[in-house]
Amino acid sequence: QVQLVESGGGLVQAGGSLRLSCAASGRTLSRNAMGWFRRAPGKERETVAAITWDGSDTKYADSVKGRFTISRDNAKNTLSLQMNSMKPEDTAVYYCAAREVLHGGLYFDKDWYDYWGQGTQVTVSA
Question: Closest Cα to residue 108, out of 23, 4, 20, 34?
């Protein structure tokens, strides 16, 4: 059982930056693939970025490539998403998620994940 809590959301103007954090607690495995996801108004939840258990590889949605950076600090049990050059279409509730694994690999499909946070609202004004 893993509990995930997102923080860092808020209101930002287009072109600005925000940094989201996800803190993990409870029972954890040594290896957890993780990802950031978002649900925009009137849209389905979509994958934003994914990262391997050791942070050695990442994958991003085309819409955020070059603007967002996913990272993790396993010693602190935290996952981060640095968001730069933000656009109004980035407005959404952002979620972090974890997948228990015994091997490496990227998991970009949200259906693969076992544990989810409650989400944090990000609003980008034009």
Answer: 34
